Every structure is written in C-alpha cells, then in structure tokens.
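Q&A FORM
Asked by: J.P.
Topic: structure of acetate--CoA ligase

PROVIDED:
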Amino acid sequence: MESNVLTSTNSNGNLRNYDEVCDSFEWSQAEKAFSWAETGLVNMAHEAIDRHADSDKGNKVALYYSDQHRKEEYTFKDMRDYSNKAGNVLKDSGVTKGDRVFIFMPRSPELYFLLLGTIKLGGIAGPLFEAFMEGAVKDRLEDSGAKVLVTTPELLGRVPVDELPELEKLVIVGDDVKEDEKTINFHRQFEQASSTLDIEWVDREDGMILHYTSGSTGKPKGVLHVHNAMIQHYQTAKWVLDLKDDDVYWCTADPGWVTGTSYGIFAPWLAGVSNVIRGGRFSPEDWYQTLENYKVTVWYSAPTAFRMLMGYGDKALAKYDLSSLRHVLSVGEPLNPEVIRWGMQALNLRIHDTWWMTETGAQVICNYPSMEIKPGSMGKPVPGTEAAIVDDEGNVLPPNSMGNLAIKKGWPSMMRAIWNRPEKFESYFLAGDWYVSGDSAYMDEEGYFWFQGRVDDVIMTSGERVGPFEVESKLVEHPAVAEAGVIGTPDPVRGEIIKAFIALRDGYEYSEELEEEIRNFVKRGLSAHAAPKDIEFKDSLPKTRSGKIMRRVLKAWELDLPTGDLSTMEK
Ligand code: WTA
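REPLIED BY: S.T.
REPLY: Here is the structure written out as tokens.
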C-alpha cells in the first residue's frame, strides 16, 4: 500500500506538525481567537460578521453571490448592515431569543442575511432545502414548533399553514407580496428597516441552529447546535480548510444541509475570508466557470460532484483556467481512490477527504494539507478530538478491527439535543462517554481511519442522507401500496440510489403507469431526492414476527448475498 501514499507538497499548511499539535492542543487555546474571550459577550454572528466589519477587513468582500440571474458582492460591512436589517424585520415579526425561525428558500443573498439576522436575535435558525415538498416541510415545522417561516411566493404553496398552529408569521421574500396579519413582505420591510441592531448576547450553550436529518427509524430528527460550535468551526477553518487571509473559498453545499451552514457560512466567515456562493443547480461547465471567475483558491465539495465532473471528461475542464486552486476537500460519502487519482491528474492537486456528520457539527476526521494521504482513508482526528473504534459495549478495539466509529464526548461542536427527544439523544452515547456515529470503520496502525459502511440502514445518495423509514411511510400512504421496504443499492456516480420493494394491495396490478405514479407520489410528498429510482414489485415482503420489514433481507436479495439468520422472520 505504501506506494499509494500521496506525500504532501504543501508544507505551508496552517497545521504543520500534526503529532506535536495533538500532544499539546486544548480547545481552550482556540477560544483566544474570539472577541468574547475578552468581552464575555457571545454571539456567533457577531464573530463571523460584525467583528470583521469593525476591523480593517470592513471593506473586504465577504460574499461573492451569483446565480443565473444575479451577480453581487457584499463586504463585511454590507453583511453587517444587511443582517441587521433582516434581524430588524424578524424582530418586528416577534422573534426573540430561543424562537425557531425556519428558512425555506433557494440560495440568495437574502437567505444569508436572514439566517445571520436570526442568530443575532438569539433565535434558532432552521434551514430547509428548497426541494422539500409539503410532507417534509410540515414534519419539520411541526416538530420544532417554528414561530416564523421565511419563504418565497413560489414555495409558499408547499407550506400547510393552516395545519401549523404554532406558526405565527410568514416572511415572504419576493415581488408583489400581499401583506396581512400573518404575512410580511420582506423586501418592503427590509428597505425601511434600520441597519443597526442590538445583538442579543447569549450563553455559549444557547441554541443557534437546528438541522433535521434522517435516521433509520422514525421521522427526521432535529439536531440542535449551540453557539459554542464556533470554536471548532474556526479551528477547522484554519487546520482543515487551511484558510488564510487572501483565500477565496467556495463550499458547494446548500445551507439546507449541515455542510452548507457549518462550512458554507460559519467557518469561512469566522476566519474572515471571501466566501463564494453559487446558486442554482449543478452543471459541470457552470462549476468550472465559477472556479475560474472568482479565482477560487480553496474548494469544498462532495464525491458525487467530483464523480460527475470526472464523467464529464477532461476536454471541458481544459477550457477553464483553474490555476488559482490550491486546496480541494471532499465530504459526505466515501471518497474513492479513483476520484483522488482524477484530482491528481485533472487538477494536479490532492483531494482531501473529511469525515463528519450533522450530529458532530463540524469536521472530525480529516486529511490535512501537510500530511500524507492514504487514498481511501478519511484521515486522522482533528487535534483535540478523540476518535476510536469501539464494540457494542463501548470497549475500544485495537488497530485493524472493524467496529463502531465513535468519538469521545466533549468536542466543542457536538450536538446538544435532539429536539423534543431527550431519550433519543442519550441513545447515541455508549459507556457514558462515546458518541456512536452509526458508521463502521477501522483504524490502521498509523492511526488513519477507513470507512466501511453504515451500521444502520441510512441511505447516502448523492451525499444526502435519506432515512428509509420516511420513504416507506410515504409509500404506504399510496392507496395501491400494502407494504414497502426501502434500501440503498450501489451506484457508481451517486454512491447509492434508492430502491423500493413494494407489495401491492389486493385489487391492484403492476403497470408502468402505476410505478411512475408511485414514484411521483414520493416526489410530490417528500422531495425528488427521496423518491425511489428503482422499484421492484413483490407478492409480499420479508418481515419479522413483529411485522417489521427486514431491510437486511431485501439488501441480501438485491446484492445476491446470503440472507443470514432468518430465525426472527415471519413464516
Ligand atoms: C457519511 C454530512 C465516508 C457517513 C457532513 C456519515 C462519509 C454521514 C464521509 C453523515 C466521508 C460523511 N467518508 N462517509 N468522508 N463524510 N459520510 O449528517 O455515513 O448528512 O455518518 O453529514 O455521511 O451525513 P450528514
């Protein structure tokens, strides 16, 4: 394997001597970087924006925004003033500390002003991916008890306002918005709003952002993060993203996912760098053009996107000047060695894998610019965090053993709650101290971690987490569907695709139209990315005696594997 190791050509990384730093680093050292270390006054949005606005970085571009229709630039001073204005609009809508403000809209500068404005008020921001349909939107607003929803006229139709008694105000970002007692025209109020705002100073442990994410059972759960997470966002911006003052940084993720907030908003702005946000959908030419136009130096994306670029061919790539790029990172799914080889050949750069999850709030296991990369490995724990492979009782296993990838409690950006579900939160911790990730992995003798798979049935498709239960629940709402079981099957580009096994109700027969109708039913009810690409019809599905669909057996069928112990199966 040694010959496969990629040595670093970047000895100038912010983290130069990994082992030395690991030995001596304490998180309290990172706290010195924040103004609250002196003033005692805490608020993430202040550290990310206002502090820079008030410094010699005030006129530096904080946000380069573009999409098909808009191309705009905002300095840190602009971001301060506009997030203050947005904060004032929300304040007038009744938002106070601890209130949940959900933001359901496509990427646009306003989204960022409003998210920061929410945090400035001490509110808890809940970003929702624009592709969510009514069922997905309702579940999240209901569970969180959202008080205010920010959305657009186009998306409003997917919000079942009458079924959400706790929702007091709708802030609509768009043209020709009719106002009433409940509805606020954002643009009108924003124009008039003051650009000064008294920031709500909070406790480090106060809630800041709520991301809903999927598990293998039950509805999506609300993962709560607090202001304290900024310590890890800042420190990993330095060590992992390797951000320096002159960098132009682009994270391709939407803020509806944790990567789009932790690393699309907080980390780059805490580090005071210029942040590129590109709205709209993925297209290879558009992405290369974005890298070229903004002379992006540090780029954070995902394996599915890299694989798509790879598949698009190097001819397209050759049209663009990407010479500004110096550091490329990946997250969300296993980064195949083949993609790393493509990166070396096409970009002449190593792609650095990073592992973390919604629940960890920030990067945990990473490849660093100044470290050797073993293609296929996720790298090593961020200094100050302790990761290990543990068995199901929480005993640490020796190198090269497969087991649960676990992290020692106490890293700064750890989730602080699962909204409304304290027992669920507790269930993640083994032997008191170990957070168990749900991923299986092993660690080699040199301390590199290697991803093996999910322990549970969670599906990763195009880097997005889809809970099979949520899709199954939607499927059985269709009048033709008696039973449904959903699994992920391997796909060369998307990592996994969603496959549903379905048993029809009496009186229904398979037809192509029915199949399409069922697929669209999930698309309309949840979202396009949750809809099964592949549907297989069966007379009945394997179930346990208690009636639970055995996804393990479906998976074995699909992959032609032995079905294993079937003793609990209903005969
Ligand atoms: C998977 C995304 C392999 C993993 C930030 C994890 C990865 C889940 C990697 C979290 C990686 C994330 N290699 N798998 N580098 N990074 N994953 O919450 O299964 O959307 O548990 O967070 O993605 O997905 P989430």
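FOLLOW-UP: The pocket of WTA is lined by residues 213, 257-259, 331-335, 353-358, 378, 437-439, 451, 454, 460, 465 (CB under 6 Å).
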